[in-house]
Write a structure and sequence with these properties.
150 residues; alpha+beta; Thiol Ester Dehydrase, Chain A; 6-stranded antiparallel sheet; 8 strands; globular
């Protein structure tokens, strides 16, 4: 996995992180393409890259804050198949209004060249495991979520 560049979307102030990935051989099903159940795992690489490059990876934040970051909503739309040896690029961004008090939304697209293979919309909440309730996103994390890379 390697981030290849960052761009800004037209009409958006939020950064877009591009991450090129390799399709693992064990993700290919008997039909010769990536099984639909594997797409969220592929998209996770783009999300992890987005967060880690801003110094707020979920595992790191869990250790520092004691908070958990469960996914409460996920929607994947499939547009084309992905095959062995394909090297798709995942774009990850936080849509306008995607950072709320205790949740963050991600929009991702997986592309082969100019063709969109799949899209994913994901919502993650900040959860206090002791109080057993959602809790506000820490301020420094909130600021870094929308931080462009230098």
């Amino acid at each position: 996995m390697s981030s290849i560049r960052e761009i800004d979307l037209p009409n958006s102030t939020n950064p877009v992180q591009l991450t090129e990935i390799n399709v693992p051989k064990n993700f290919i099903d008997r039909y010769g393409h990536v099984n639909y159940k594997r797409f969220p795992k592929l998209f996770e690489r783009g999300q992890d890259d987005y967060m880690s490059r801003r110094g707020i990876g979920f595992m790191q934040m869990e250790k520092v804050t004691g908070l958990k970051f469960p996914v409460v909503s996920i929607k994947v739309t499939y547009r084309a198949e992905l095959k062995k040896d394909d090297k798709p690029v995942i774009s990850t961004t936080i849509p306008e209004g995607g950072v709320r008090d205790s949740s963050m939304s991600f929009h991702q697209e997986m592309r082969l060249g100019n063709r969109i293979v799949a899209e994913q919309d994901l919502v993650v909440v900040t959860f206090d495991p002791i109080a057993q309730f959602k809790t506000p996103i820490p301020q420094y994390m909130r600021e870094r979520l929308l931080q462009p890379l230098e």
